[in-house]
Amino acid sequence: MKRFIIIVLDSLGIGALPDAAAYDSLGANTLGHIAAAYPLRIANLQRLGLANIIRLESVPANSAPAAAYGKMAASSAGMDTTSGHWEISGILLPQRMPTYPQGFPPEVIDAFTAAIGRGILGNCVASGTEIIQRLGPEHMRTGCPIVYTSADSVFQLAAHEQIIPVAQLYEMCRAARAILSGEHGVGRVIARPFIGDAEHGFVRTGNRKDFSLQPPPGHLLQRVDEAGLPVVSVGKIDDIFAGSHISCAYPGHDNAQSGASLLQALQEQPQGLIFANFVDFDMLYGHRNDLLGYAAAIEDFDRFLDCLLPCLDADDILAICADHGNDPSTPGTDHNREYVPLLLYGARVRPQNLGIRNSFADLGQTAAEYLGAAPLPAGRSFLSQICEN
């Protein structure tokens, strides 16, 4: 029985795309700058061929890599989580989802406050960790949730778990999701619960939840589901695709849980698509400009491969990639428009250089063909190049 396993290392870009200037991403190179600043110890990724894709100062290329390797360019507009994952699944977006560098307009905020029956704080572009320190005390006095956004297409709603219980915060997010459609159809509404106090500081909890737009029809998950095979998500994949055509969802609030869930899924799911996201790279390190923390997380993932790779069956194909960049060495804390790495490994995979793929969708199209699913709306399969189907 066949399985195609896709692991997205959230934000592990490998160099600015040709149109990076339009996205304020000139010079970005998430992995390259990390490897230049820190001597990465990544024996498994080096063996697979990661350092064959781009030059890494601290990691030599492998003369005989064990995986097929290359890099992928984004052909959708944008550089966010939703557009990146949707493109992997064969859905291209011709224009960027709306962003709000000046905050959300009155028609959005007025409709939202009417729906939840109270006012809001913030309504600005902000770092999520900074804004809860700044507005947390006022939030606790007033009970008003904190609304903020970023360079991405997101409406984020933060609240203290003792002031607005998590279940109530989720309902507020569902109200926002219903409002944010059409011209204001942001990619994600995100619940950002936190705890703590003004004296000791506020910290976000693991109860984050994303409320995404429904993806357009024809994506990889739908095609695999229609082919009668299981579609298994790990981590925030379930949220990114709004639960669409997912037969089993495993949790992954952080990389450790995503890893444990992925190993569990491999034990319990003998066939189909397994689609996993490892979120810490972006959430904890890229957005916080924590270069050394990002480097340590890459090394932790490399050690996780010691457990993962022996679990693969003879007919499994493992793909490791990313969805955008988030270079922690740059002054900003937002995503970057970058190429992403592509590694494919399995007993049936012929190691080789796949070059530059014109779209992330090439990976999804390859997965669909391998699993015998109908073709996706976009992408060119390279299955015949890497193995006998």
Question: Oligomeric status of the shown chains?
Answer: single chain
Number of strands: 14
> Would you tell me the structural class of the helices and strands?
alpha/beta
Order of helices and strands: EHHHEHHEHEEHEEEHEHEHEHHEEEHH
How many strands, what sense, and barrel or not for the largest sheet? 8 strands, mixed
Widest beta sheet: strand line-up? 10-9-11-1-12-13-2-14
DSSP summary: helix tally: 14
Q: What does the average pLDDT come to? A: 96
Which of globular, elongated, flat, extended, rod-shaped describes the shape?
globular
Topology, pairings included?
Layout: E1 3-9, H1 30-37, H2 43-48, H3 50-53, E2 68-72, H4 81-88, H5 106-116, E3 121-125, H6 128-142, E4 146-149, E5 154-160, H7 166-179, E6 188-197, E7 201-204, E8 209-212, H8 220-226, E9 231-234, H9 237-240, E10 248-250, H10 255-268, E11 272-278, H11 280-286, H12 291-308, E12 316-321, E13 340-345, E14 353-357, H13 361-370, H14 383-386
Parallel strand pairs: 1-11, 1-12, 2-14, 3-4, 5-6, 9-10, 9-11
Antiparallel strand pairs: 2-13, 4-5, 6-7, 6-8, 12-13
Descriptive report:
- The chain is an alpha/beta fold.
- The protein folds into 2 domains: about 260 residues, Alkaline Phosphatase, subunit A (3-Layer(aba) Sandwich); about 110 residues, 2-Layer Sandwich (Alpha-Beta Plaits).
- It is built from 14 helices and 14 strands.
- The strands form 2 sheets. The chain has an 8-stranded mixed β-sheet with strand order 10-9-11-1-12-13-2-14, with helices on both faces.
- It is globular.
- The two termini are about 10 Å apart.
